[in-house]
Amino acid sequence: MAKKSRKMQEALEKVDTSKAYSVEDAVALAKETSIANFDATLEVAYRLNVDPKKADQQIRGAVVLPNGTGKTQTVLVFAKGDKAQEAEAAGADYVGEGELADRIQQGWFDFDVVIATPDMMAQVGKLGRVLGPKGLMPNPKTGTVTMDVAKAVEEVKAGRVTYRVDQNGNIHAPIGKVSFDDNQLIENFKTVQDVIEKAKPSAAKGTYMKNITITPTFGPGIHVDPASF
């Protein structure tokens, strides 16, 4: 087992691992125990009582955080004609067609989000092997395959995050930076919480949310008490 650093040991001493904190206390403690020497991200992690292997229990989508993520997202849009102009006007960083696909095939990945109009998916689909493993493949469920490219770009720039349940039934989503004030982080958390609650599959039985944890990029996880909200 890797030896924990002195800073991590000191941070762990501040956390009662047998306790589930209120969301207010969890946010404050996560900020206090962040040991990164940069403006770290706080993330919420859910362990859900779902079976992702079943099609009716897969959870995936996107949500716009009211206070943003604290990160500037670089957006690439596959579109042509008027839709390309709309994407550019909305603030997309890269807009194009085949020439962008060729650059990506050659190993270029200087972007965080890919958006495409439906008519471009025949070209974009060929990039599945390189975009898919990086979580960059456009998908209608996350709002990244759409004719309303302007809205999609604006939402990403404003702080839209995507979420997807993994093979173990976990979902991870950022809720902001350590530099955010507590109320901003709590509001972002509650926005994500509301979306995940509403995404509960009808086929899921028993306790839906088995565990909720708020964690800084470098620091201990803080368990959140669902009863606190």
TrEMBL record:
The cross-references to CDD domains, in alphabetical order and at most eight, read: Ribosomal_L1 (cd00403)
> By its UniProt entry, which InterPro entries does this protein fall under?
Ribosom_uL1_bac-type (IPR005878), Ribosomal_uL1 (IPR002143), Ribosomal_uL1-like (IPR023674), Ribosomal_uL1/biogenesis (IPR028364), Ribosomal_uL1_3-a/b-sand (IPR016095), Ribosomal_uL1_CS (IPR023673)
| GO molecular function terms listed in the Swiss-Prot or TrEMBL record | rRNA binding; structural constituent of ribosome; tRNA binding
Q: Which GO terms describe its cellular component?
A: large ribosomal subunit
Q: Which Pfam families match?
A: Ribosomal_L1
**Swiss-Prot/TrEMBL keywords:** Repressor, Ribonucleoprotein, Ribosomal protein, RNA-binding, rRNA-binding, Translation regulation, tRNA-binding
GO BP annotations of the record are: regulation of translation; translation
Q: Does the keyword Transmembrane helix apply?
A: no
Gene3D superfamilies membership: 3.30.190.20, 3.40.50.790
Q: Please state which protein family the record places this protein in.
A: Belongs to the universal ribosomal protein uL1 family.
Q: Subunit arrangement? A: Part of the 50S ribosomal subunit.
Q: What does this protein do?
A: Protein L1 is also a translational repressor protein, it controls the translation of the L11 operon by binding to its mRNA. Binds directly to 23S rRNA. The L1 stalk is quite mobile in the ribosome, and is involved in E site tRNA release.
Specify the protein name: Large ribosomal subunit protein uL1
List the source organism. Tetragenococcus muriaticus 3MR10-3
Q: What is the lineage of its organism?
A: Bacteria, Bacillati, Bacillota, Bacilli, Lactobacillales
